[in-house]
Write a sequence for this structure.
């Protein structure tokens, strides 16, 4: 996450990673407010978290790490996220096709009260179109997660 | 307001970019990523300043897809507020974005269209482009928002 400038700015953290899914988090920072008066987090911050989580799940699901740009992202906002409380996003791959990865994610602050459901579709660029050093970056990320 | 009031041009007047930009103080994240309104002829457009912190893929480099989504969601929110005298920040129901081209770290522009307006729900279509290539959008987005009571 520290290699992706905007994720670094948001101080996005990897909570857990396994073969089938991963969980990312951000703090409920005042910087992320979309409605200062009511103390509500901007829906767009949740899009950043969802895109990052679903995109990471897509990369991890591929046999060899490859660049997976987002084709589309859809967000259903069940309720607003509130400032001052950590925000989690769990993402998983629902289908890995030859050229496309289908993913889903869920955002919450209180596990019993989902905030947002997301669906992301990603393109697999393949090893030949993945820049050199990408695997090392991902490997670095994995090391950091384990540490 | 009924269905016949839903045609473009029947929305009434919108406020100017100068007034719209005063609301950014209530939306810290919009300021963090660098969203602003500008007047272009009679229309309102929304811009995203190029910032290295908005990058998602440093190898290209390209803007983070989530930042583009956040920017276009903000554009939809501000556009609705411009037609409702900025009384309240509208709540988002859902948001969907299609990425057509990778977005470079340069100034980005967006235009909104308030397509269909129910009594309580507004549908906003948003088009984003870079440079003078409005005909070659980098992303198309659609949002449903709760229409704020004036």
């Amino acid at each position: 996450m520290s290699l992706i400038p905007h994720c670094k700015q948001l101080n996005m953290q990897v909570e857990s990673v396994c073969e089938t899914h991963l969980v990312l988090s951000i703090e409920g920072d005042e910087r992320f407010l979309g409605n200062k008066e009511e103390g509500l987090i901007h829906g767009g911050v949740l899009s950043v978290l969802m895109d990052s989580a679903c995109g990471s799940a897509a990369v991890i699901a591929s046999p060899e790490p490859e660049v997976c740009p987002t084709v589309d992202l859809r967000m259903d906002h069940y309720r607003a996220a509130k400032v001052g409380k950590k925000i989690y996003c769990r993402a998983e791959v629902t289908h890995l096709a030859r050229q496309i990865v289908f993913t889903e994610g869920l955002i919450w602050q209180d596990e019993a009260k989902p905030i947002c459901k997301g669906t992301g579709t990603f393109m697999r660029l393949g090893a030949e179109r993945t820049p050199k050093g990408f695997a090392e970056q991902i490997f670095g990320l994995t090391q950091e997660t384990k540490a | 307001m009924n269905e016949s009031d839903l045609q473009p041009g029947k929305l009434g007047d919108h406020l100017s970019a100068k007034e719209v930009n005063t609301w950014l103080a209530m939306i810290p994240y919009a300021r963090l990523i660098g969203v602003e309104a500008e007047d272009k002829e009679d229309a309102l457009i929304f811009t995203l300043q190029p910032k290295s912190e908005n990058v998602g893929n440093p190898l290209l480099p390209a803007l983070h897809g989530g930042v583009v989504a956040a920017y276009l969601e903000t554009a939809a929110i501000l556009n609705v507020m411009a037609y409702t005298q900025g009384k309240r920040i509208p709540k988002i129901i859902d948001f969907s974005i299609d990425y057509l081209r990778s977005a470079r770290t340069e100034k980005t522009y967006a235009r909104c269209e308030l397509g269909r307006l129910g009594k309580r729900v507004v549908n906003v279509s948003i088009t984003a482009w870079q440079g003078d290539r409005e005909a070659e959008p980098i992303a198309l987005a659609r949002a449903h928002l709760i229409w704020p009571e004036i």
